[in-house]
Each structure stands twice: as C-alpha cells, then as structure tokens.
Batch of 2 targets.
Target 1
Amino acid sequence: MINILILGGTTEASALAQALAERNISATFSYAGRVAALKPQPLPVRVGGFGGVEGLITYLQTHRITHLIDATHPFAGQMSQHAVEASQATSVPLIALTRPAWESQPGDHWHIVPDIDAAVDALSGDSQRVMLAIGRMHLPAFSVQPQHHYLLRLVDAPYSPPPLPKHSVVVDRGPFTLDGDLALLREHAIDVVVCKNAGGTGAAAKLVAARQLGLSVIMINRPPSPQRQEVHCVDAVLDWLDQTTERGV
Ligand SMILES: NC(=O)c1ccc[n+]([C@@H]2O[C@H](COP(=O)([O-])OP(=O)(O)OC[C@H]3O[C@@H](n4cnc5c(N)ncnc54)[C@H](OP(=O)(O)O)[C@@H]3O)[C@@H](O)[C@H]2O)c1
C-alpha cells in the first residue's frame, strides 16, 4: 500500500496534497513549523523537524513510508539534502516537486547575487528605500547597512523588533497580485527590491511591478540542489507514483 510523506511549505506542496486527497491516496504532510498559522491541508499533518537525517530515516521506517516527496522551498537546502540521504539509506524512492527559477525579461534591472551576504554587499552606498522580500530569518544580516529604510514583508508579525533602525513591516502572505504589489511599492516609495529566486507564481508579482516602475531588483540565486529526480508539476508526481508502484518499489 502506498504511504507518502510530503515535505511541504510551498504552494506546490499544497496543490499536491489536494490531488492526493482527491484520489484517496494515503499521505502525511510535513511542515517545519516556521510560521504561526499553518495553511490547513486535506491530509494528516505533522509539524517540526525530524531530528536530522537520522531522525528522518527513523520516521520513514517507523511510519512505513513508501514514497518521499520533497516539495520544500528552493532555499530549504538542508531539508532537501537530508531527504536525499534518507532516501538512499532506506531505499524509499524520492522525487522533488520544484519550481523553475525566475528569469529576467526585457525591462528588468536585475543585479544577480549568489547569496544573502552578497545581497547585503550590493546595498553599500547612499540611503535608499529597500523592500526586503526574503522572509525573517536573514534580516539580521542587513543590519550592517543601517543607512537604508527597509520595508519588510513578513508572514507573521516579528516577535522582537528587527535589528534595522529604519524599517516598516507589512504582514501578509501570498499569493500576491500585481495591483497589490504596485500599490505597495508606490506607497513606500521603494527604490530597490531584494528577493530570493523562489520561482513560481505566488511571489512573482513584485518582479512585474518592479519592471513596470523601473526599479532595481537584487535577485539572490538559489543554493545548489542535490542530485535527485525533479519534476515541476503535480501530474508528473502522480505519473511517478504510478510508475514506481507498478515497478513494485
Ligand atoms: N527558506 C526559505 O526561503 C523558505 C521560504 C518559504 C517557505 N519555506 C519553507 O519553510 C520550511 C523551512 O525552511 P528552511 O529554509 O528553514 O529549511 P532548511 O534550512 O532546509 O531546514 C532546516 C531544518 O528544518 C526542518 N525542516 C525543514 N523543512 C521541513 C519540513 N517540511 N518538515 C519538517 N521539518 C522541516 C529540518 O529539521 P530536522 O533536521 O530536525 O529534520 C531541517 O533540517 C521548509 O519546509 C520550506 O519549504 C522556506
């Protein structure tokens, strides 16, 4: 019998959960538990880390998981690496449901950087109004560029004040609309947008808005992903499930 573990936290993971529930396929949805209000899922949900690779291996074995699906965010590099190692150790087949990276288009003013530190360096210079659309975890890195006014868009209100002397917080979660992001960038008179190359549609509106307003974007490239089978749509995951089940995996 199929018994799937989905590593979630993305719009795509939720779409997959919906497709599996509609087909009455047994699966559990796993959240890291980083945000306060978790999106409800039509599947049993578990929350929190597994305790490293060893913990994930134990989970796969004790819950008799037959298929592991990594539908985490492209910047969740550690979880993805653990998924590969646990799959190899247990022979539970793994597939990753990923989003193609965004690519710049005519009219964009992207400055592409390899990581958060390089994004911080790219903000050296005179004071600007900067939208930081990078989540909350890496905000402290920007404290070495205190001259800017930062607009922080966060899923939850921060527990403690971000270490940035001049900032505004907008609490909101995607998917975001073009009209909404145009209004936000105008209202806060943003000069430059800093974001991760997440891909997908839910957070792409800010890039179209930046293009229309002629704003600069500091685009943080993805970390390298481990060697694994990857697909970009839910149907491809369902095909993979059919194939691996027919093969008796
Ligand atoms: N990084 C981003 O920019 C971003 C953006 C949007 C959403 N997310 C989502 O937020 C979650 C955490 O991201 P992250 O960057 O902190 O990941 P990460 O650095 O790759 O993971 C750190 C640790 O968090 C736990 N973890 C991560 N995803 C998990 C999941 N789906 N279920 C159970 N445990 C999980 C694991 O703990 P153990 O080692 O104890 O198992 C993992 O080793 C991911 O699920 C991701 O999809 C991340």
Note: The mean pLDDT is 96.
Target 2
Amino acid sequence: MMDAQMSRLRAMGELEAVRTDIQGLTQTLEGLGLWQPSAGLKRSCNEALRILDRLAERFDRKLVVTLVGPSGSGKSTLLNALAGDDQLSPAGHRRPTTEHVVVFCRRADDAQQLVTHLGPDNVRIRASGAAEKLENVVLIDTPDTDSTHQERHLPIIHKAIAMSDVLVCVFDGENPKRRDHTDLLAPLVRLFSGENLVVAVNKCDRLDESELTATIMPEFQRYIREAWSVEPTAVVYVSARSRLRQPQWDEDARPRHARDQFDRLQRLIVETFNQSGFSVDRRLDNARNLRQYLQESVRGAAQMEQPHLEAAIRDMAAAKNEAMRQALSAFQDHDASLSAGINVRLYQQLAQRWLGPVGWLLALWTRILVLGTGIAALLRFGNPVRQLLGAVSAVRHFAESKKDVDAADRGTGTGTALHRYDSAIARTWPDIAENLIKGRFSTSVRDIQRAPGHGDAIGQQLSHIWNDALEEELARAGRKLSGGLLQLIFNLPVLAILSYAGWLTVVAFFGGTILGSDFFLHAFWAVVLVLFLCFFLLQGVIRLAAGKHRLTRRVFSRVRETAARQRDLPDSPVWEQAHAVLALGV
Ligand SMILES: Nc1nc2c(ncn2[C@@H]2O[C@H](COP(=O)(O)OP(=O)(O)O)[C@@H](O)[C@H]2O)c(=O)[nH]1
Ligand SMILES: [Mg+2]
C-alpha cells in the first residue's frame, strides 16, 4: 500500500514537471509574436496543458481505452465483440449508427468524468455485468465521422480522445491504407505514446488468408509506421463480426477464413491494460510523449528557419555597423565645435590634476574657456544625446513631414548623421526583411520602423558608446599630461624665482634692511612673466600631445571600434525574436 502511494506521489510529481516544461515552452512562444508558426504551436501547447489537466483529474481512475477509426470500419462491432454483448453499441450499414460516445464499464460512476466533460447528451453509459472482467478499464466507442453529423461529432470525438489513455485505431481491412483516414487520425495519434497505441485491421475475414499474413499485414505495418512515425504496441488483424454472439452473416458474404488475432487483442485489454496500477505508468508515458512531441514540433519548426534567420541576423548586424560608420563620419565632418568642446574638457581634466602656480593658471584658463567661447561648444558637445534624439525623431517622420526633414538637414552634422544612419538602414532593410519572411516572420517586418536600431534606441546606444569613449580618451590624455615630472619641470622656474625673492626678503628682513617696493614689483613681474611663459610652453606641449583635432579623431576611432564590436541591438523585437527562434532550433 505504501509502495503504491509512493509511486503515485512520484508520478504526480513527474506529471507536474512535464506540465512546467510545457508551460515554459508556451511562454517562450508567447514572446515570439512576429514568428508566425508560434501561434499554432502555442495552441498545441495549450491543448496539451488541457489534456494534462484531465489526466491529473483521473489519475486514480480506471484506464480509458478508446476505439477510433473511420466510419464503417467496425468500431461498434468490435466493442460489442469485446464486451460480449451484440446490442451494446448500435452497429450496421445504415448511417449514422453510433451517434454518441458509448462507454462500456462496470459501474456507471466509472464514466463520470466523461459525462462531465462531454455533456450527458453525448454519452451513453453501458454499465454491465458483462464488464466484470474489466476491473481497471473503461472501453469507449466513438461516433461516426463521415456521416451527415460530422460537424457535431468531430468535437465530441476530439474531446473523448483527450480523455483517453489508450487508443485502439480500427481500420477497414478491405481498404486499410486510405490516406484520408490515416491523416484524420494522425494529429490525434500524436497525443499518445506508442506504448498506448493499438492498431486493429478489422474485417480480415473478407481477405484472402495467405495474402493477409504474407503481404497485407507487413505492408500495412510499414505504412502506419511511416504515416504516423510511431511504433504501436500491437498491430493485429481481427474479424469483429465473427466474434459476435450472432454474426448473422449475409449468404453472399460469409467469412473467407476463420483466422484472426481477436484473442490477442482481448488479452491485451482484459489482461495487460486491466492490471491494477498499470494506468499510472500509461498516463505518465502519454504525458512524457506529449512533451516530447511538442518539443520536437517546436524544434523542427525552428530548424526550418535556420538558414534564413542566420542570414538575416548577420545582415542586420552588418547593416547596423555600416550605418553607424556612416552616421559617425557625418557627425565628425560637420561638427567643428565638437573639437572645441573636447578641448575644454581636456583642460578641465588637467586643472583637476595639476598643482602649483601652473595648476592655478590652468584652472583659471579653463574657467575662461568655459565662460567665453567654450560655453556654447560645451553645451552642444556635452549633450550629444539630446541632439541625436531630436534628430532621430525628425528623420523618423520622414514620410509624414517634409518640413521636419528640412529642419534636420538645416541642422548641424548630427541631423545629417542620423539621416545617414536611417537611410543606410533603409537601403539594406528590404533584403533583410525578405529573409525574415522566408523564415516565416510576419510580413509586417517589411515596415522600416521594425528595423533594429531604427529610432531612439540607436541614439541612446550611440550616446552611451560616445560618452564611454570620450571619458576614457580624456582620462588617458589627462593622465599623460599630468605626470609628476612634467608638473615639476613647468612649476620649477616660477617656484625658483618665488623662493629666491622670498629668500632675499627674509635675509634682508633679519639683516635689518627693509626692501623697497620696486623690488617687490620687479619680483612680481618676474614671477608673472615666467609663469605665463611656462604656461604657454605647456599649452604647446598639450597641443602637440593631444591637439584638439587629434583627440577628437581618437575619440571617434574608439567610438567606431566599439560600435563595430557591438553585437546586440537593444530593444529590437525583430532582432531578439530572430535570435530566440534560432535558439529554439538547437
Ligand atoms: N465482414 C465483416 N464485417 C464487419 C466486421 N466488423 C463490422 N462489420 C460490418 O461493418 C459494418 C459497420 O460496422 P460498425 O461497427 O457499425 O462500424 P463503425 O462505424 O466503425 O462503428 C456493419 O455492417 C458490420 O456488420 C467484420 O469483422 N467482418
Ligand atoms: Mg459505430
């Protein structure tokens, strides 16, 4: 008893794990709205989750074995033969014969779940003493499919199958390889693991005995394996009608022989399936099979897109880099004030690092730069982001408003830069979009607004790269130009004069002599002149080492390098989903 409970608990746990996996898959698919197959796959996942719900509900209940197959193949006759009651499910030539799901079970409440989910009108319960051998199994016959009531019957059949554990697929032996029948069953069969599938070729009494065993059955077995890509637990030939209590053969259509495998089928149901505890394993098999089937479907669909999406991703990255390059070159060409701004920032760096009289003068000079000519450049340069974003939105509305484009064109290099960026993307986008569409992306990707990097995102990315590069270059130049030795050399002359004048003053003071004001005026000018001289020299050195154009060029080349290295295109659904679909294929 304990063992049974433990194994049941373990099974419930595994069922939950399967459920979580399928839910994860559904969530992934939900994020792939642009990839068209995702809708259908998501539907399958949801359907599978519903089946798992049913399965969890009936975990403790009897194994549900369902007969399915084309109309007239002999499902009802087979059920009657298995039940040992000729009248259990209506069979015959006049269509429709079976209009309801017929449930053969021991007690009426064995069929309760079916009644609840299919509706009482669609279920006929045949609780019978004849079912005494079926301790743990419920047998179901399904309604006709190709009758006038097909519309009404098909949903019932689907629902019944979703609540089944084992499928017995019945084929008409006189014409077993009917494509439409195998195709009709194919999507339903996929819900079951091979272990839980039985194929019965009925009416074998109509076929020549030796042909049946030597040719028909082996060929049929191969055919089924190919059509459904599954290995059923048994493929048997039966003559259901011969096994009725009263077969009532027509005189002109008596059986051609008495050979069949009905007993094997019956044993399978009454002995194997009927074992207690058997249902838990069967159900887990089905659940695992369902998960595997969904995972394979998703992987298979994603793999089909691989070459197209890989090409699209490669081209997107290349297009972005090329567009970035063009944008940056325009930026560089046009904006001379940028260099002035960079120059001011360099002086700010140095002012912070330098000590001594030259350091004070540097700080003063930086102030003057900022307040004077520098201020406009600093603002414009200090916030390229705002300029970029303004230009982006201007260019983005290209189609709607010529006025905005004119404004962008009239603007500085940044406007042209973004314009160049967008037109570079616009040139390459149609080809990329076609590749995406070949990878079954929605045709809405043709819209240029879908192109990665189109719009604000690229402005932000650019400003990010820009600011990083600028800070690094400035820090580097600042460090190089603030070495201790350099500071010492340039401060030394002023310090020497200061010390000398100080020395003379102090010595004179203690000698009792008071120096005249001429001395101090002279000393002051000597200090000022030398300080200015040193500062001019230092400016020369700064210009040589990090001339403003040189520094600007450095920043640009660093920006360009970083931009080329950037592989990701942030906030772009197309880019992200193309990657996600590729990842599903591995
Ligand atoms: N010769 C022969 N006829 C059968 C056999 N099984 C069923 N039939 C006949 O095929 C017809 C359709 O059977 P039925 O059970 O109603 O098929 P269903 O639509 O699949 O339920 C009936 O006339 C049956 O008597 C069989 O094993 N041999
Ligand atoms: Mg029937």
Note: The first strand starts at residue 63 and ends at 68.
